[in-house]
Amino acid sequence: MLKAHYLNYRHVSSDTKLIAKAELLATQYRAAKQQLRKNNRDFSTAFNVILTNVEVYQAYDGWCLQIPTDNNLFSGKDKRNTTYTTEIRDALRWLIAEGFLEKATGLTRPKKKDTDERHWLPFAYKLSSKWLAEIASTPLSDPSKIHRNPLASYWQLREDRYDKKGNKYKVAIEPTDEQLELNADLLAETNKTLAAYDDFMTTMATTIGSTPVHPAQLSLTRVFSKGAFELGGRLYAPIQNYTKDNRKYYHFDGDPTIEIDYSSIHPHMLYHKEELEFDGDDPYTIEGFDRGAVKLAFNIMLNRKAVGANKSAAKTISKEVGCDEDAAEALEAAIQALHSPIAHHFNTGVGLTLQRLDSDIALSVIDQFVITLKRPILCVHDSFIVSVRDTESLILAMESSYRQLLGDGFAMRSIKADALDFNEALTVAINSCFEQDTDDLDNEKWDELIAEQGITDCTVIDVNNDDVDE
Asked: Is this model's pTM higher than 0.85 or not?
């Protein structure tokens, strides 16, 4: 089975070995292109970024790299983001033409996650024997000397574009001076927290089972949507592309982890914003309907924005849920009836506003962990992965961050957890954290429990075929 990461350009190395190799490649490139005169095009940095990210995305460990080289991604109004420079594009094309990168697959068109929609993925390449013989056979850089590319901001403002066939795609845009001024505090807080997160997480050994994950894959970018800092704002990292099953096997410095997320966070947020409580146990449970279908339809109704007089989401529900339109209309009506106190929010596009709110909560939880507690954490939108010894700390941080953003009068309604099947002693300790009965669980006790559990290896490590934040 082909394993492939989507190559990004968010990191650069200060390691002298890698810098020297990048400068040598830049010299060879200029000679091959007969560009011997000095000019302003910085190919040394371009090759540094490529060599660095080849290491970040584990090409020396047998992973392939999905590499787009389309002109429109690297320049013009459709440029993907500031790290996609024309120098990187030209350097990549040269490496491919010279046989340093060997094609492993052609263009592919898999389904996107959680949808029937398909999209094109670029060619996948692997390091060729020529690369391994003439550039390097093992990583050139000390991981501790790999840093965020100065062109890679900790946040991006995105907007939707459409091609001639009506297919939607996203591009990074520059905010206006007015937007920057109005959101100065928000962006400063984002930069502060995510830079501290980067610095701290590079001190942790993150593994899937016993297989190392490059620390730069944990680096987060906050992505705002539709050209507005009030919309979206969720945090994305390459490590989020590993499959959900792989996430159970994450370890921090050998500690097994647990993933905890807010249960049905968006429905409860809407009720709380109306200063109400949902009168029931599960907002996605409706008698006579599959819970998964209710959840999917509910979120369609949150994220869809009605056009003109068309206030029904039934056609979209029918397509995404996989049912006929009559069944979709019945499902939509049942959701509107159950959630009549917040039904006026349906088909208004409020989902991105709620994402902005849950992203504020996520940033607060991360801040508490890496700045205050000095403990490792990963986030996947509204869920968080921590060492089992930090279970209680995470629950308390999630609770306090929710109250901070929604108001002291409203507590998170429920949480759910996911982890490996641990031995009885460790399971009892984790359950004690949920009961906040942890007086007997000091670090020495946790060390004993974790040593007894040991590291559980993951037999299959794979990523979803997607560039997770695109």
From this structure: yes
